[in-house]
Design a protein that fits this description.
This protein is α+β, with helices and mostly antiparallel strands. The protein has seven helices and five strands.
């Protein structure tokens, strides 16, 4: 019968007791500890190998890769150095024949003797152009509608406010559009969008204002979304796919239907046919 394994946690007294038993006892203990260490190292190596496997280096499906996927470089290896290549046309500013602003800088006095040149005719003009942004600041537009009483019937008549002025005060469509662009186009977190608007324009907005602007944009694009969906349904060839994503710390699936010129995304907590049916494109697709 084999002896039970000793605990790997030995007190100082236990170690001294084994030492007191003689050389054979010490050699037996060290040999046993080395065997355990070797087995543990093999187990760690095996577990690391399992964790490092993904769809690229094993038979695991891509859906099992999780969200820690490696970023694949799309650049191809080249013998050329980085940056602009010899003979490549550069992109530089071009002279504008119609500048927005012209500032004349007069010559007041002679740099040689100090005489006044105020009444001396100009012989020539040299010019340089500077391309820059105008001062960035909000422009407040007050919309006023007239109110008139009809002298014939007494009916009180009022003009119509434009669509962007639907409350007493509000942000205009261009600023709301910039909010959405920074969040969705440039993928800036909402707190950094607030920082950009404050630092560049002096506009202090809350994150709730950003979310409202995004919701309004979504509502205004509802008809465009329907047109894209219908156009994909009518296409001869459509690509369908799905990939995992996180929504409120839960696993959802991002479904996509695309043609050469159009793409339609649809997030759903499930994958497969159930989600595709709710997406509404595949059931009506006949291509």
């Amino acid at each position: 019968m084999s002896q039970p394994k000793r605990s790997i946690q030995l007190s100082e007294a236990e170690i001294r007791a084994i030492y007191g038993e003689g050389e054979a006892a010490v050699v037996s203990l060290v040999t046993e500890l080395l065997e355990r260490l070797s087995r543990l190292e093999a187990e760690v190596k095996e577990l690391k190998g399992q964790l490092s496997k993904d769809s690229r280096n094993s038979s695991k499906p891509p859906s099992g890769d999780g969200f820690g996927k490696r970023t694949r470089s799309l650049r191809r290896k080249s013998d050329q150095s980085s940056g602009g290549q010899a003979g490549h046309p550069g992109q530089t500013l071009e002279w504008s024949p119609d500048p927005d602003v012209v500032e004349r800088h007069p010559v007041g006095e002679c740099s040689g003797c100090g005489a006044s040149l105020a009444t001396v005719p100009v012989e020539d003009v040299l010019a340089r152009q500077v391309f820059d942004l105008p001062p960035i600041a909000l422009v407040v537009t007050e919309h006023q509608v007239e109110v008139k009483g009809c002298p014939h019937c007494g009916q009180v008549n009022q003009g119509s406010f434009p669509p962007e002025a639907n409350t007493v005060v509000q942000y205009g469509p261009r600023l709301r559009g910039m909010m959405v662009y920074l969040m969705e186009g440039q993928l800036l977190p909402s707190n950094r969008v607030c920082d950009v608007l404050r630092d560049l324009m002096g506009v202090t907005v809350s994150e709730g204002t950003l979310y409202n602007a995004r919701e309004q944009c979504f509502e205004h694009l509802a008809s465009i979304e329907s047109e894209i969906q219908q156009a994909i349904q009518d296409a001869a060839v459509v690509h369908f796919d799905e990939t995992g994503m996180r929504v409120n710390q839960r696993l959802w699936w991002l479904h996509v239907a695309s043609t050469q010129g159009l793409t339609y995304y649809f997030a759903h907590p499930k994958r497969g046919q159930v989600a595709m049916n709710e997406m509404g494109i595949l059931p009506e697709f006949s291509g």
